[in-house]
Amino acid sequence: MKKSVLVIATSLRRESNSFTLALAFAEGAKEGGNEVEIVDLHGKDIGFCRGCLACQTGAACPLADDAEAIVERMRNADAIAFATPVYFYEMAGQMKVLLDRSNPLYAVKPAFRDVYLLATAADENPRVADGAAKGLEGWISCFDAARLVGTVVATGVDAPGSIEKRLDAVKRARYMGAGV
């Protein structure tokens, strides 16, 4: 069955290693016959949630930025893959800001069920992305039908392009995307 797959690349660095994982996942999902869209947060204006809860009452968010359109794409997607660099054993700040701004999804029934995490880190520790996964799982737990389906972590990559030494992770991301 064809699914609508949204891949959100959260690194603010051009040609980032996590963006390479996002592309591989997207290619796999396309090969699997799915409709795929990539949203790159690089260049997007996404402000901090102010906690006014206007979105919970059906009112428009008072912040006029790019978040509303991205959150609408999230609402309509059957599956979402988040690609993030890991900083200080946690997801990138811009990913957390987007998750906070997705508060309007709490008041509706979003389509997504399957959520994926694609992470890169300079650290070699195989558990380096555990904090990012835990944070994402906290967000996922707010949606009864959603679940974290899979995670790919590429460790030991820091400089742009260094993901090339971790082609195993790129292949795993592509394979995981094909299984959406």
Following the backbone from N to C, one meets helices and strands in this order, namely EHEHEEHEHEH
Please identify the oligomeric state: single chain
Q: What is the number of beta strands? A: 6
The value of Rg in angstroms is 15 Å
How would you classify the helix and strand content by structural class? alpha/beta
Q: What is the number of helical segments per DSSP (H or I, 4+ residues)?
A: 5
Strand content: 15-25%
Identify the overall geometry: globular
Beginning-to-end CA distance, first to last residue: 10 Å
Low-confidence stretches: none
Largest sheet: 6 strands, mixed
Helical percentage: 25-40%
Average of pLDDT: 96
Task: Supply database-style keywords.
180 residues, alpha/beta, 32% helix, globular
Q: What's the short version?
A:
This protein is an alpha/beta fold and 180 residues long. It has helices at residues 17-31, 67-76, 93-101, 130-140, 167-178, and strands spanning 4-9, 35-40, 79-87, 90-91, 114-120, 147-154. It contains five helices and six strands; from the N terminus they run βαβαββαβαβα.
